[in-house]
């Protein structure tokens, strides 16, 4: 009995990376963060807390409305006060 390899192709069971839905991508990233011991949280900050970050020299006064700069300042504060949690 002769076997024709072209005639018996099996369709792929998993989707290619490019066709994954946005929800699947978010879930994959969520699981990856959890494996790395990270949690994603929303944090509300008072104006006074931003002022304190400026006073501590962690945030430049002109950058206080820049969300990424404020996040970086908070991470630096965590590192300085909490140190390595590991």
Main attributes?
mainly alpha
How would you sum up this structure, described in words?
This protein is mostly helical and 86 residues long. It has a domain at 42-86. It has helices at 22-35, 47-55, 67-82. The longest helix is centred in the C-terminal third of the chain and has 16 residues, at 67-82. The N and C termini lie far apart (62 Å). The mean pLDDT is 84.
- Element-by-element helix/strand order: HHH
**Structural class of the secondary structure composition?**
mainly alpha
Principal-axes geometry comes out as: elongated
Count of DSSP strands: 0
Distance between the termini: 62 Å
Strand % is under 5%
- Averaged pLDDT: 84
Largest sheet: none
- Poorly predicted runs are none
Number of discrete helical segments: 3
- The helix fraction, in percent, is 40-55%
Radius of gyration, CA atoms, in whole angstroms? 24 Å
Summarize the structure.
By secondary structure, the protein is mainly α.
What's the layout of helices and strands?
Elements: H1 22-35, H2 47-55, H3 67-82
């Amino acid at each position: 009995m002769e076997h024709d390899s072209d005639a018996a192709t099996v369709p792929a069971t998993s989707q290619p990376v490019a066709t994954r839905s946005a929800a699947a991508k978010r879930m994959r990233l969520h699981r990856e963060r959890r494996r790395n011991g990270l949690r994603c949280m929303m944090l509300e900050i008072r104006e006074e807390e931003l002022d304190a970050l400026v006073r501590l020299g962690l945030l430049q006064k002109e950058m206080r409305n820049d969300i990424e700069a404020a996040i970086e300042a908070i991470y630096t504060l965590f590192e300085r006060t909490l140190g390595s949690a590991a």
